[in-house]
Every structure is written in C-alpha cells, then in structure tokens.
UniProtKB/TrEMBL annotation:
It comes from the Bacteria. Belongs to the RNA methyltransferase RsmE family. This is Ribosomal RNA small subunit methyltransferase E. InterPro entries: Alpha/beta_knot_MTases, PUA-like_sf, RsmE, RsmE_MTase_dom, RsmE_PUA-like, tRNA_m1G_MTases_N. It comes from Mucilaginibacter arboris. Residues 75-225 form the Ribosomal RNA small subunit methyltransferase E methyltransferase domain. Its EC number is 2.1.1.193. One of its GO terms (cellular component) is cytoplasm. Coiled coil: none annotated.
Length: 234
C-alpha cells in the first residue's frame, strides 16, 4: 500500500504537495495509472489512481472514499512540558500518534527547562507516524502554551494531572469513564510546582498516579496515552 497525506485535498482537483509528490515519483517511482491511498487527516481515506505523475505536483483521481476511517470512541488531549532534549519529546509524539491521540499541547511551566519549540519540526514527526500506523486522523499539535492559560480552559472533559509530590492519588483505571474526552497534564523534568498543582486542583483537575516508578516526562506521557487507549478498548 502506498499511502500519502493531502491535508488540503479538494476532490474536484486532487494533487499531492511537493514533498509527497517527490516521494511518490522520485523515491517510489510510481507512474500514471498506479493505484495509491490518500488521507486528509480529517478522517477520510481515499482509494485513488495517479493521472499525472510529477515530482512537484502529482495529480490523481479518487476512485473510492471511506469516511471516518478508524474513528476512535474517545478523544485524548495530552498537555506535556517539552523536554530539555527535544528528541525525547519527538519520541513521545511519534509513539503517541501511532498508539492513538487526538491533540497535543506543549506547555510552559514554572520549572520548564525548554522554553522554545520548533512547531513545524514537531508536526513533521506526526505526519509519517500517521501514515506508518495507517490512520486517517492527524493529531492536532497546538503552539507552546502557558500552563496557567490551559488550566483555565473550560473544556468539558475528565481532567487529570500527574505529578511526583506526596498526596492522595488515583489511577486512571479507577476514574476513567469510557468513550469520553480526556485532558492529561504531564509536567517538566523538575515536575509541577506546588502552586501549579493547587491551581490545577482548583480548576477541576484530579491527581493521578502512573505507577510506583518515577518516570521521565516523555515516558509518563506515553504511559497515560497507552492507559487511556487500552481502557477504552475493554
């Protein structure tokens, strides 16, 4: 299967962007009449045929469309502080996309060691992971956001914060209501500060535990991603 990503697909005039076209023609050496599969990142999966191969703008026609392909029964949003080593964040984004995630927000916290991200670069990690895992939905990557702004978000969801401080905590398994929306906060390598935790609790977040081990930021975020997906399959 040759799968391509066309986020701005218009079925009246179908073509691949330059990056996808170059891969299609220069790398895979596909030709006119070859059959391809195309996703738009919005849930549509297209069975198509190349009509005009071009390394800058390959055109195709849609033969068949599957809507809401692989639609999940829940919505998962993870807000995570970027790691000092950006490759660790990229690893999380790639693996979470493959497992299943709908929205990712990099957050700026009081103890954040990394305060700048390359949004375009991180998006380029997501796209091949979407194609690798044969998904028709492309996760939304938000800009770097102050934690204080996110805490005030009144989105109707189960809202959880994971941290290493002492105190009463529950596991995701104990509190998850299946087939709902979820927002999980994962802090920086220095953890959330006590004032940040208190503010989260005041805004309806519940403290969760991700097990007895002390996890790295990217590992904690992936563990939360896995648990939510697993529990929604039961």
């Amino acid at each position: 299967m040759y799968l391509f990503y066309a986020p701005d697909l218009n079925t009246a005039d179908c073509f691949l962007n330059e990056e996808e076209s170059r891969h299609c023609i220069k790398v895979l050496r596909l030709q006119k009449e070859d059959v391809i599969e195309v996703i738009d990142g919005k849930g549509n999966f297209y069975h198509a045929k190349i009509t005009a191969p071009d390394p800058k703008k390959t055109r195709f026609v849609v033969l068949q469309t599957q809507q809401e392909f692989g639609k999940r029964n829940h919505y998962l949003h993870i807000a995570v502080a970027p790691t000092k080593n950006i490759e660790r964040l990229e690893w999380f984004i790639e693996k979470a996309t493959e497992i299943g995630i709908d929205e990712i927000t990099p957050i700026l916290c009081q103890r954040s060691e990394r305060k700048i991200i390359n949004h375009e670069r991180l998006n380029k990690v997501i796209t091949p992971a979407v194609k690798q895992s044969l998904k028709a939905y492309h996760p939304q990557l938000n800009p770097l956001t102050n934690l204080s702004s996110l805490l005030k978000d009144q989105t109707q969801a189960q809202k959880w914060i994971a941290h290493c401080n002492d105190g009463e905590k529950v596991s995701i398994k104990e509190v998850l209501i299946p087939q709902k929306k979820y927002l999980v906060l994962i802090g920086p390598e220095g953890d959330f500060s006590p004032p940040e935790i208190n503010t989260a609790l005041e805004n309806g977040f519940q403290t969760i535990t991700l097990g007895n081990s002390r996890l790295r930021t990217e590992t904690a975020a992936l563990e939360a991603c896995f648990e939510v997906n697993f529990l929604n399959r039961l």
